[in-house]
Amino acid sequence: MKNLIQLGLAAVLSATFITAKAQSKETENSTVWEISGNGLTKPSYIAGTFHIMCSQDFEIKPKVMKALEKSDQFVMEINYTDPAEMAAMQTMYQTDKKLSDQLTPEESAELDNVLADYGTDLKKMDHSSSQGLYALISLKALPCPQTDIKLYEIELLQNALKNKKKVFGLEKVNDQMTSINKAYDLKAVIGQLKMGKEYEILLKKMVAAFKKEDVQSVYSLFKDDKIMNAEQEKLMLTDRNKNWAEKMPEMKKKESAFFAIGSAHLMGENGIILLLRSKGYTVKPILSL
Q: One Pfam annotation, family name (predicted)?
């Protein structure tokens, strides 16, 4: 389980901010939603997660855990219990192609200076992938040491395994990495690294809003195009949401499912909630359970 937690930390670090921007016309607020109707014999649930935060801020609402208890299956973005997925995850942050070989001497020097703000340098990070660099942003933005970090999905997974739930994933590690690579090339990631202080402020506001289940405020914090432009939003949110929405009906057809996905994927015109509603399902926020 320790290795699983370490890999889970690696997986969410680069995704924490990359998948953050979303807009919605919804007026509903909740961290967990019920899916019913359209032939379902039992309701299923969607939990909007906050991938990573400090333990002092960490909380999973009782209604979220109750929804998980009522479900037969636990479905994450990626199935962390799949050995093949874990093997893929172990290699996704390293590459044989050096960062310095992809940059001019001037760009390399600039990146080295930027990395100093993150407590490292280009020599140490030269074999990292773009995602490896992006992971530094989340670590720096968190106001606590790594030993004090809590991972929302991992906490849910541990509970699901304890209660012998079936575990599945909505996509493969390689699918996720393909989306990230298309959305954020090396120079785009370096540009994001330069915004380190802005991410610290953003994360603090996000955590406060999430703790109050004020998801609309969470989303409003991510409308700045410096974080995610329209094309990046399409690659990181819209396209993946549509793929997931096609898989979800079959996964909850015979048994109830609890879907744990990043909160940004829930909302917006191409968010999971509206996509499922368009397929005939009733999706409503749960205030208590």
A: TraB_PrgY_gumN
- DSSP-H helix ranges across 226-271: 230-233, 239-251
Q: Which residue is listed with tokens 């200076």? A: 113
3-state secondary structure of 99: coil
Within 10 A of 119 (CB to CB), how many other CB atoms are there?
Answer: 10
Q: Among 35-39, 47-51, 92-96, 206-210, which stretch is predicted with the lowest mean pLDDT?
A: 92-96
Domain range list for the chain: 2-94+129-285
269: confidence class by pLDDT, cuts 50, 70, 90: confident
